[in-house]
Amino acid sequence: MTDNPLPHADALKYEDWAGEMGARWLANLSGFESTIAPVGNALLAHAAYSPGERVLDIGCGGGATTLAIAQSVQPGGEVLGIDISPDLIAATTRRAAAAGIANARFLCADAASVTLPDGPYDRLFSRFGSMFFAEPIPAFANLRKLLKPGGRIDLAVWGPPQQNPWMLEGMAVARRHAELLAPVPRAPGPFAFEDLDYMREILDGAGFHGVDIIAAKGLLAVGGPGATPSQAQQFACNAMAFGQVLLDYPESVQQAAQADLVELFDQHHRAGEGVMMGYTAWLVSARA
Question: Which residue of 3, 64, 205, 217 has the fewest C-beta atoms within 10 A of its own C-beta?
Answer without folding.
Answer: 3
